[in-house]
Write a structure and sequence with these properties.
The protein has about 450 residues and is an alpha+beta fold. The protein contains 15 helices and 23 strands. Pathway: Purine metabolism; IMP biosynthesis via de novo pathway; N(1)-(5-phospho-D-ribosyl)glycinamide from 5-phospho-alpha-D-ribose 1-diphosphate: step 1/2.
């Protein structure tokens, strides 16, 4: 998970500086390890800047300078994936110069995955002299390797064009929007909203969009069965985003309602682990009739713990992430909504232990994601969670095992069919739940 954004103004004197800055800031939740932009101005070369700061702090003092340059096209990137480097990055050939940014994970690739994809694209572009043909070549080369959404600025002797492409399985979200004469592409609709634009539609799996001063052209170059990552609705995406026509918040809320129907637990109050646990908590509270209270308060300066890889550092980050309002939970039977249990560090050290310290009588976890039984397709050769006996075990039994390990009185998990129903799409990647990977078999180690 990282985030990409592209903005292009078809107006004669269009300036996309504000849209690029505010749109990319809105995607910050998709990556906190770094950020970067590349811009184009009439008659000038491409300009690129990146750094390991958050978007706001990296560019806040330079927004007026960006505005003065009056760029008509630009792309941006926020970094999470360790397989990628700071982006966008530039590359030059005899005919073309490109700035390239990718949200993706590719299997069987050494080095930075974005650099690998950029090299293939530029070489194909130099050889074929056609963006659509070069994009199809790239898709063919990356077939079976994983997921990607790409934005690029392509400069030749005459003009700069904005290119966007989504992998043929549509594993990651990607959408298209506009505001007046500005056309935008973004990992999530929140990026469009941040830029002041409206969502027009999702970019189709295998679709390539090319935007120039003459307008937009698009073609679906290659399409395979849709395998959109279910975890986007559960955790990755912002609750304000709409993916494939489904509002993320309402999907999470629906899961809470379904869990309230499935589990009849005795609770006095429902609280949420902010921010991705709020939807499931509210759905559960409203359906069950139990009051919802804001008892778990997020430290605004804390890291997004999912993006902290070191176990000890993650434990420290979890303890610093949340604080509990004691008066809300003291002596109460508490149900706490959360998005998922991956490693268990945050829910155990960040909330359950703290609720116990605050004298909560009982603690029940209300989780919007079914039990994770396999590694993500990004690491299909990693630890096989099925070896712990959870795969195909009833979710109630898994919940009891996990509750004991985490120190909770119960864990309420949905089933995979419940998650499918809440999302409302059949074409989903659920590799972490069922072990069915959307990649070539040669990359899957049993």
């Amino acid at each position: 998970m990282s985030g990409v954004l592209g903005v292009f103004s078809t107006a004669k004197n269009g300036n996309i500086a504000d849209a690029l800055f505010y749109g990319l800031t809105a995607l910050q939740h998709r990556g906190e390890a770094g950020a970067g932009i590349s811009i184009a101005k009439d008659g000038d070369d491409l300009l690129t800047k990146d750094g390991t700061e958050l978007v706001y702090y990296l560019f806040k003092d330079e927004l007026s300078l960006l505005d003065a340059v009056e760029p008509y096209a630009g792309i941006g990137h926020v970094l999470y994936e360790s397989t990628e480097g700071l982006q966008p990055t530039e590359a030059s050939g005899r005919r073309y110069k490109i700035a390239f940014a990718m949200d993706g994970v590719l299997l069987g690739v050494e080095g930075k995955h974005d650099v690998y994809a950029k090299k293939i694209f530029l070489e194909a572009l130099e050889r074929q002299k056609d963006i659509f043909k070069a994009s199809k070549t790239l898709m063919n080369k990356l077939a079976g390797k994983g997921s990607y959404c790409i934005t690029a600025l392509v400069k030749d002797k005459r003009e700069v064009k904005l290119v966007a492409m989504r992998d043929p399985m549509g594993i990651k979200p990607f959408c298209f929007g506009r505001i007046d004469s500005q056309l935008l592409v973004s990992s999530e609709s929140k990026g469009l909203y941040g830029a002041g634009a409206r969502l027009v539609r999702d970019i189709e799996p295998g679709e390539v969009i090319v935007i120039s001063k003459k307008g937009m052209r698009s073609r679906i170059m290659k399409k395979e069965p849709h395998m959109h990552c279910c975890f986007e609705w559960v955790y990755f995406a912002d609750p304000t985003s709409v993916i494939e026509g489904k509002n993320v918040y309402f999907v999470r809320k629906k899961l809470g309602e379904m869990l309230a129907d499935k589990y009849k637990i005795d609770t006095d109050v429902i609280v949420a682990s902010p921010d991705s646990g709020r939807g499931v908590a509210l759905g559960f509270a409203q359906r069950s009739g139990v009051p919802f209270e804001e008892a778990v308060i997020k430290n605004p300066g804390a890291k997004r713990t999912f993006q902290v890889e070191d176990p000890e550092e993650r434990k420290k980050a979890a303890r610093a992430k949340f604080f509990i309002n004691k008066e809300v939970v003291r002596g109460k039977r508490v149900g706490i909504g959360d998005d998922s249990i991956v490693r268990g560090t945050v829910v155990r050290d960040g909330t359950i232990k703290k609720l116990r310290i605050c004298k909560a009588e009982k603690v029940y976890c209300i989780i919007s994601c079914p039990p994770l039984c396999f590694p993500c397709f990004k690491d299909p050769g990693g630890t096989n969670y099925a070896a712990f006996g959870m795969y195909k075990m009833p979710v109630e039994k898994i919940g009891r095992k996990v509750a004991k390990k985490l120190g909770a009185d119960g864990v309420c998990y949905p089933t995979v069919p419940m998650l499918e129903q809440a999302i409302g799409h059949k074409g989903l990647c659920m590799a972490c739940l069922n072990g069915i990977y959307p990649v070539a078999r040669k990359y899957i180690k049993k």
